[in-house]
Amino acid sequence: MTLPIGTTAPDFEAETTEGKIKFHDWIGNSWALLFSHPKDFTPVCTTELGALAKLKPEFDKRGVKLMGLSVDPVDRHSKWSEDIKETQGAAPNYPMIGDTDFNVSKLYGMLPAAISGDPLSRTAADNQTVRNVFIIGPDKKIKLVLVYPMTTGRNFQEILRVIDSLQLTAKHRVATPADWSQGDDVIIAGSVSNDEAKTIYPQGWKEPKPYIRIVPQPK
């Protein structure tokens, strides 16, 4: 079962394409995006890894570290990286975990605890549940979980939009409405009383209903 939002992201040690890491130490005071793949040398994941490499500057601007994962070994990740650069125009510029003992996949509820054996003997279909995105805050809590089927490539612009919302609402007592994007109006959080809201927003707010209080995005 996938870990629920608000729980502490399991810590782990793992081999990656950039050396051994301890996950919580690697995150440090940053945000982190952990995204997983069923198998190396698969077509949809190849496009995703290239797309994320091109977008890395956008994640850097937001203080978000990137970490990929596949159950295949690190040396295969390195070979796959060459194909990604050739076909997508950019190779992964972030670490990729070689989860050959399935430890991380199990800790994060992506594979059953009973799974064992040689990862290279498993097919992408065997690992089809290893297709998740976890966004983790500096407090090491899971802020968002997305689960994708193998046939649907991930929309990283949407993931950036969600990170913008998460970081805004972590700093200010607001919520973001449907289809919100950076700069749009926001909603005063329900936990804020009207008396508090008058102090925070002395200019007032739009109120189509008493439970919907709309203000400009805080700076």
From TrEMBL:
Q: Does this entry carry the keyword Oxidoreductase?
A: yes
**Pfam families, per this entry?**
1-cysPrx_C, AhpC-TSA
> Where would I find the Thioredoxin domain in this sequence?
3-168
Is Oxidoreductase one of the keywords? yes
* Organism domain of life: Bacteria
Instruction: Enumerate the Gene3D superfamilies for this protein.
Output: Antioxidant, Horf6, Chain A, domain2, Glutaredoxin
* GO MF assignments: peroxidase activity
Q: Which UniProt keywords apply?
A: Antioxidant, Oxidoreductase, Peroxidase, Redox-active center
UniProt xrefs under PROSITE patterns: THIOREDOXIN_2 (PS51352)
Q: What InterPro entries has UniProt attached to this entry?
A: AhpC/TSA, Peroxiredoxin_AhpC-typ, Peroxiredoxin_C, PRX_1cys, Thioredoxin-like_sf, Thioredoxin_domain
UniProt record similarity statement: Belongs to the peroxiredoxin family. Prx6 subfamily. Belongs to the peroxiredoxin family. AhpC/Prx1 subfamily.
Q: Which PANTHER family match?
A: MCG48959-RELATED, PEROXIREDOXIN-6
Question: Can you say what this protein is called?
Answer: Peroxidase
Q: Lineage of the native species? A: Bacteria, Pseudomonadati, Pseudomonadota, Alphaproteobacteria, Hyphomicrobiales
